[in-house]
Design brief:
single chain, 352 residues, mainly beta, 9-stranded antiparallel sheet, 5-stranded antiparallel sheet, 29 strands, 39% strand
Length: 352
C-alpha cells in the first residue's frame, strides 16, 4: 500500500468539517464495482456499506447517521472503533505489575468501550487513502487517557480485498508502559438494508461452542460454559429470533471461538438474509466474538430519517475476552512497551 501526500489525502469524496481544534473531519469512500464502503475519521466509523442483493439491487446494510453530528451524540457506538479496551472491565479497575489503575467508569461502576471518551469519540488522522483500495486512520492515545496506563500509537486500516470483501486491520504499539489493548469494530449489520426493519429472521451461525457467562451487570464470571442446547447455541445456522425470547433482553454475550490460533484466521460467524439473499461471512485472528442484537436501540433517528428500533441490527465484534484484565485464565490482552498488538478481521459478502 503506497503512501500519498498529506495534502492529497483530503482531496476526497464528500465534504469536510472543521472542528474547534482545526482538525479536519471528513467522509471517505472506498469503492470497487457495486461494492462501496463509506467511513469517517470521527471514531474511525464505518458509515455505510453498500452492496447488491441477489437481483442486483443496491442497499446500505449498516446502521448509522447522515452527519458527523449524529455520531458525536451517539450512545450506540454505530460503526465505531472502540477501545482502548472494548467491552467491559468490572469495577472500572485492574491491577498490572503491582499497580492498580482506576479507570473512568461510564456504565454504573464499570467501564464500557474505553470510557466516556473512548476511541469511538475521538478524531483520527488519515495516514493513507486510496479510493479503490484502502484507508488508514491513526490515533495517538496518551498515558492516563481514561485512566489507562502508557502512551499508545493506534492504527486501523480498512481495505477492499478481491470481490466484495472488506478487511479491517488493527495495530497498536505500546511505548512506555504495559497496557491492556482490545480494539473492536462496532458495526451494526442488517443484510436486508439499514431501513428494512429487524434482524430476527436473519439466520446466524457462530463458530464458538462456549460463551463467557456474565453477571447481572454483564461482567464475565470467569467461566467458560458450553452453548449446546441453550438459547446461545448457534452451532448450526438458524434464525436469530428462534430463541431470543428466552433471554431477558436479547443477545449480548462473548463467544470463545473454536480453535487456538492467535496468528491465523479462524471462522467467527456467518449471517444469511433469505429475503435479499445476502450472506456475510466473518473471519478473525481474535479469540472471541461478541454477539449483540441491538437490545438498547430505541427510536434512534438514523440515515434518511429512518427510525431504528430494538433488534434493528446485529453486531459481531471480534475481540479479546471481556474483562480479561481481571481474569488470568482468559487470553491476555497486555501489550508491553515496544510490542505491537495486531487484530485482523475479514468480511466476505455474497448474494444468491
Amino acid at each position: 500500500m503506497g503512501r500519498i501526500t498529506f495534502s492529497c489525502v483530503f482531496v476526497v469524496l464528500a465534504f469536510l468539517l472543521a472542528n474547534a481544534n482545526g482538525v479536519e473531519v471528513g467522509f471517505y469512500e472506498l469503492k470497487r464495482g457495486d461494492f462501496s464502503v463509506k467511513l469517517t475519521n470521527y471514531g474511525a466509523v464505518i458509515n455505510s456499506v453498500i452492496l447488491p442483493d441477489r437481483n442486483g439491487k443496491l442497499d446500505d446494510v449498516v446502521l448509522g447517521f447522515d452527519s458527523v453530528d449524529g455520531y458525536k451524540n451517539d450512545t450506540t457506538y454505530f460503526g465505531a472503533v472502540v477501545g482502548r479496551v472494548a467491552n467491559r472491565i468490572g469495577g472500572a479497575k485492574f491491577t498490572l505489575n503491582g499497580t492498580t489503575y482506576n479507570l473512568v467508569a461510564n456504565e454504573g461502576n464499570n467501564i464500557l468501550h474505553g470510557g466516556p471518551k473512548g476511541y469511538g469519540d475521538v478524531i483520527w488522522s488519515v495516514l493513507t487513502y486510496k479510493p479503490d483500495s484502502h484507508i488508514t486512520f491513526t490515533y495517538e492515545s496518551s498515558d492516563g487517557e481514561e485512566g489507562f496506563p502508557g502512551a499508545l500509537s493506534v492504527a486501523v486500516t480498512y481495505m477492499l480485498i478481491e470481490t466484495n470483501k472488506l478487511g479491517v486491520k488493527f495495530e497498536a504499539k505500546a511505548h512506555n508502559k504495559a497496557t491492556p489493548v482490545n480494539l473492536a469494530q462496532h458495526a451494526y449489520w442488517n443484510l436486508g438494508g439499514h431501513n428494512s426493519g429487524d434482524i430476527l429472521s436473519h439466520e446466524l451461525q457462530i463458530f464458538g461452542s462456549h460463551i463467557t457467562p456474565v453477571d447481572a451487570e454483564l461482567i464475565p464470571t470467569g467461566e467458560l460454559t458450553p452453548v449446546k442446547g441453550t438459547p446461545f447455541d448457534f452451532l448450526e445456522l438458524h434464525k436469530i429470533g428462534d430463541r431470543i425470547n428466552e433471554l431477558p433482553k436479547g443477545y449480548d454475550i462473548n463467544y470463545a471461538l473454536d480453535g487456538n490460533s492467535t496468528t491465523h484466521f479462524r471462522r467467527a460467524a456467518e449471517v444469511y438474509d433469505s429475503v435479499s439473499g445476502r450472506r456475510l461471512q466473518l473471519w478473525t485472528t481474535a479469540p472471541g466474538v461478541q454477539l449483540y442484537t441491538g437490545n438498547l436501540v430505541h427510536d434512534v433517528k438514523g440515515k434518511g430519517g429512518y427510525i431504528y428500533k430494538e433488534h434493528a441490527a446485529l453486531c459481531l465484534e471480534t475481540q479479546g475476552f471481556p474483562d480479561s484484565v481481571n481474569h488470568p485464565n482468559f487470553p491476555s490482552q497486555i501489550v508491553n512497551p515496544g510490542e505491537t498488538y495486531k487484530h485482523i478481521m475479514v468480511y466476505r459478502f455474497t448474494a444468491h
